C-alpha cells in the first residue's frame, strides 16, 4: 500500500502463495513439510488485530515527495533501534494472536502460540528459520509481479532486505533464478529446476487476482480472490480436521492448498454457468434460486468441469519435478473423486468456507438472498462435525436477524 | 469405538472390489519392479495410471478400500410392501419450492450432490427417510425450505 499500488495483495493472498513456496522448497530440502505448512499458514494471523506492521512505520516523512523517495530504500537503523522496534512489534503481535486464538481448543491454541508462531519469530528450528526465509522469497516474487504491473514499483528495497535475511543455500539459489529471469541477466545460465519452480509460483500467484465468480455475479464489491478463499479453507480444514480426528493432517493441508490451482487456467465455475443469462437483472433473479438439473445434465456438467480442470492442472504442474507433479495431481484427484477420508472431508470443508463467506457478505451488504446457500447446505453436508459447525454459524448470524428469502 | 458402517449399492461394491483387486496387483508388481499387467490393457481406467506413479497414494487408497470392504453393508431394495417409503437406495422425485429435482439417497461414500446423489446423513437425506409420496418435509435451516415428494422408485441393483 505504501507504494501506491492499485489493488495490493492482502495478507491472506500473500500467505497462500508463501505457504506453497515454503512447502515445495522445504520438500526439496527434505524438511518436515507438515510443520513448515503450519508455520507458514499462521505466520501472519497476528495481523488480524495488530495490522501489517512495516519497517517504515513511524519513520515516514509527512511530505508526499519525501515519502515517495523514502520508501524506495529499505530503512537502515541502529542495532538498538532495530531491537526496540522488533520487540515492540513482537509484543503487539503476540497480544493480537492471543486475542484471536482465545476461544480455540487448548491444543490448537498452544500449538499456534507456543510452537508455530514462536518458531517463525524466533527461528527455533530449521523449519521455522526456513519458513521465515521463504516468506522473503515470496515477497520478492510479489514485488516483481507489482513491478510488471507498474514499472514505478521499486524492487530494490525487497532485494536489499532479502539479501540481508536469506542465508539458506536453496533459497539463495531460488533468488538467483528470480534475478536471472526477472532482470534478464545476460550470460548466465538458468537453473532449469529453479526456473520451473519460479514459473509455477508466478502462475499460482495469479489466483491472488482472480475474483470468485459467485460473488462477482452477486455484485459484491471487492469480492474475495481464489487465493483468499484457499487461505481460509486451509485453516478451517486444519482446525476442524484436528478436532474430528482420524485424518492425515499433512495430506489435508496440501489438498486444501492445491484444490483450486486448476482455476488459474480453467477459471472459477459456479453451478449457474450453463444457464447464465446475459441480462444483469435476470442474473440477479437467478441468484435467488438454486439451479436444478436433470440427472443427465448433472452428469454432463460435472464431466465437462472435471475434464477442463484436469487439463488445466496438468498444464500447470507439467514442468515440476516428477514426484511433486504426481503428488499434486493425486491430491486433486482424491479431492475431486473423494477417494479417501481426507478427500471426502475436504470436499465438504471447502463448501463450508464458501457458506461462511456468504454469511459474512450477507451481514455486510444484506443485498442477496440466503436461500440458495442454506438449501445447498442441507443437501450437501453430512460430516457430523461440519454439521455442528453449521449450527453454530446459524446461531451466530441468524439469531437476531432472519435472512431475506 | 465401533467402525463406521459404509452403506453402498451393489454396483458400488462391485466397482470397489474390482478396484481393490487391481490396485493390489499394481502394488504387487510395483514392489517387484515389474510393469503391472493391467497396464497392457487398452481400456485401462486412467486413474490407475496415477496410482502407478505414486506408491504412497496407491497404499492410502488400498487402505481405504480395505476399511470399506471390511465395514460395508449392501443397500438392499426394501420389501415390496415398504417400497412406498423412502429408504437408502430410493430414487426420489421432489418439488423444492415448486422446482422439480431428483435425488438418489445413498450412503456417505457415494454421496455427490452435483450428480444427484445425496447422503442419508445430510439434513435433507435424513429428513426424507421414511416418508411417502405426497408428504412434505420442511428443512428448518435459517431459511425454511419445503420438499414435496412426488415419486419414489427403487432400482433392481
Brief digest:
With 405 residues, chain A is an all-alpha fold.
How does this structure look, described?
The complex is a heterodimer of chains A (405) and B (157). In chain A, 68% of the residues lie in helices and 0% in strands. Chain A is globular, with a radius of gyration of 22 Å. Chain A folds into 2 domains: 11-208, Orthogonal Bundle (Hypothetical protein af1432), CATH 1.10.3210; 211-398, Orthogonal Bundle (Hypothetical protein af1432). Chain A is mostly helical and 405 residues long. In chain A, helix 1 packs across helix 7 (126-149). Chain B is an alpha/beta fold and 157 residues long. Chain B has 2 domains: 6-74; 80-154, Roll (Chitinase A, domain 3). Chain B contains 4 helices and 7 strands; from the N terminus they run E-H-H-H-E-E-E-E-H-E-E. Chain B has helices at residues 10-31, 46-53, 55-70, 123-128, and strands spanning 6-8, 72-74, 90-96, 99-106, 117-119, 136-140, 144-154. In chain B, helix 1 packs antiparallel against helix 3. The two termini of chain B are 32 Å apart. The chains are: A mainly alpha (405), B alpha/beta (157). The interface between A and B is large, with 46 and 35 residues.
Proportion of beta-strand residues of chain B: 25-35%
Count of individual beta strands of chain A = 0
Mean pLDDT of chain B: 86
Find the CATH superfamily of the largest domain in chain B: Transcription elongation factor, GreA/GreB, C-terminal domain
N-C termini distance of chain B: 32 Å
Write the SSE topology.
The complex is a heterodimer of chains A (about 400) and B (about 160).
Chain A: H1 11-28, H2 33-42, H3 47-50, H4 64-70, H5 79-101, H6 106-122, H7 126-149, H8 156-165, H9 169-182, H10 192-204, H11 213-217, H12 226-244, H13 249-258, H14 263-266, H15 280-286, H16 295-317, H17 322-337, H18 341-365, H19 371-380, H20 384-398
Helix pairs in contact in A: 1-2, 1-7, 1-12, 2-6, 2-7, 2-13, 5-6, 6-7, 7-8, 7-9, 9-10, 12-13, 12-18, 13-17, 13-18, 16-17, 17-18, 18-19, 18-20
Chain B: E1 6-8, H1 10-31, H2 46-53, H3 55-70, E2 72-74, E3 90-96, E4 99-106, E5 117-119, H4 123-128, E6 136-140, E7 144-154
Helix pairs in contact in B: 1-3
Amino acid at each position: 500500500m505504501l507504494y501506491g499500488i492499485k489493488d495490493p495483495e492482502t495478507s491472506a493472498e500473500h500467505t497462500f502463495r508463501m505457504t506453497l513456496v515454503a512447502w515445495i522448497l522445504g520438500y526439496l530440502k527434505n524438511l518436515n513439510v507438515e510443520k513448515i505448512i503450519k508455520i507458514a499458514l499462521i505466520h501472519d494471523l497476528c495481523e488480524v488485530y495488530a495490522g501489517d506492521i512495516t519497517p517504515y512505520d513511524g519513520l515516514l516523512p509527512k511530505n508526499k515527495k519525501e515519502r515517495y523517495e523514502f520508501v524506495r530504500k529499505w530503512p537502515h537503523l541502529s542495532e538498538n533501534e532495530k531491537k526496540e522496534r522488533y520487540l515492540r512489534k513482537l509484543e503487539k503481535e503476540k497480544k493480537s494472536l492471543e486475542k484471536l486464538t482465545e476461544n480455540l481448543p487448548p491444543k490448537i491454541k498452544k500449538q499456534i502460540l507456543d510452537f508455530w508462531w514462536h518458531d517463525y519469530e524466533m527461528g527455533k528450528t530449521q523449519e521455522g528459520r526456513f519458513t521465515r526465509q521463504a516468506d522473503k522469497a515470496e515477497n520478492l516474487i510479489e514485488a516483481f509481479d507489482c513491478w510488471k504491473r507498474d514499472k514505478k514499483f521499486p524492487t530494490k528495497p525487497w532485494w536489499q532486505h532479502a539479501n540481508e535475511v536469506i542465508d539458506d543455500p536453496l533459497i539463495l539459489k531460488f533468488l538467483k533464478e528470480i534475478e536471472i529471469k526477472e532482470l534478464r541477466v545476460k550470460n548466465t545460465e538458468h537453473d532449469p529446476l529453479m526456473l520451473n519452480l519460479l514459473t509455477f509460483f508466478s502462475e499460482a500467484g495469479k489466483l491472488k487476482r482472480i475474483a470468485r465468480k459467485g460473488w462477482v455475479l452477486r455484485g459484491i464489491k471487492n469480492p474475495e480472490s481464489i487465493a483468499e478463499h484457499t487461505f481460509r479453507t486451509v485453516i478451517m480444514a486444519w482446525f476442524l480436521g484436528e478436532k474430528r480426528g482420524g485424518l492425515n493432517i499433512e495430506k489435508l493441508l496440501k489438498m486444501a492448498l492445491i484444490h483450486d490451482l486448476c482455476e488459474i487456467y480453467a477459471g472459477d465455475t459456479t453451478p449457474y454457468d450453463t444457464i447464465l443469462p446475459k441480462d444483469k437483472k435476470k442474473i440477479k433473479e437467478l441468484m435467488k434460486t438454486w439451479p436444478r438439473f436433470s440427472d443427465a445434465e448433472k452428469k454432463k456438467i460435472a464431466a465437462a468441469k472435471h475434464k477442463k480442470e484436469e487439463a488445466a492442472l496438468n498444464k500447470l504442474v507439467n514442468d515440476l519435478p516428477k514426484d511433486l507433479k504426481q503428488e499434486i495431481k493425486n491430491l486433486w484427484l482424491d479431492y475431486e473423486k473423494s477417494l479417501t477420508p481426507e478427500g471426502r472431508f475436504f470436499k465438504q470443508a471447502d463448501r463450508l468456507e464458501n457458506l461462511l463467506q456468504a454469511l459474512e457478505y450477507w451481514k455486510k451488504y444484506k443485498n442477496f438472498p440466503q436461500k440458495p446457500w442454506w438449501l445447498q447446505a442441507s443437501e450437501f453436508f453430512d460430516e457430523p462435525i461440519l454439521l455442528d459447525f453449521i449450527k453454530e454459524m446459524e446461531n451466530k448470524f441468524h439469531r437476531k436477524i432472519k435472512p431475506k428469502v | 469405538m465401533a467402525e463406521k458402517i459404509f452403506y453402498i449399492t451393489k454396483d458400488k461394491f462391485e466397482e470397489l472390489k474390482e478396484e481393490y483387486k487391481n490396485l493390489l496387483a499394481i502394488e504387487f508388481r510395483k514392489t517387484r519392479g515389474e510393469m503391472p499387467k493391467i497396464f497392457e490393457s487398452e481400456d485401462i481406467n486412467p486413474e490407475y495410471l496415477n496410482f502407478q506413479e505414486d506408491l504412497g497414494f496407491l497404499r492410502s487408497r488400498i487402505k481405504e478400500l480395505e476399511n470399506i470392504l471390511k465395514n460395508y453393508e449392501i443397500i438392499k431394495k426394501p420389501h415390496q410392501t415398504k417400497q412406498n417409503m423412502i429408504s437408502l437406495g430410493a430414487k426420489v422425485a421432489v418439488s423444492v419450492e415448486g422446482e422439480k429435482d431428483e435425488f438418489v439417497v445413498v450412503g456417505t461414500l457415494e454421496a455427490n450432490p452435483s450428480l444427484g446423489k445425496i447422503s442419508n446423513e445430510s439434513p435433507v437425506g435424513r429428513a426424507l427417510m421414511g416418508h411417502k409420496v405426497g408428504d412434505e418435509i420442511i428443512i428448518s435451516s435459517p431459511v425454511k425450505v419445503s420438499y414435496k415428494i412426488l415419486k419414489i422408485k427403487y432400482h433392481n441393483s
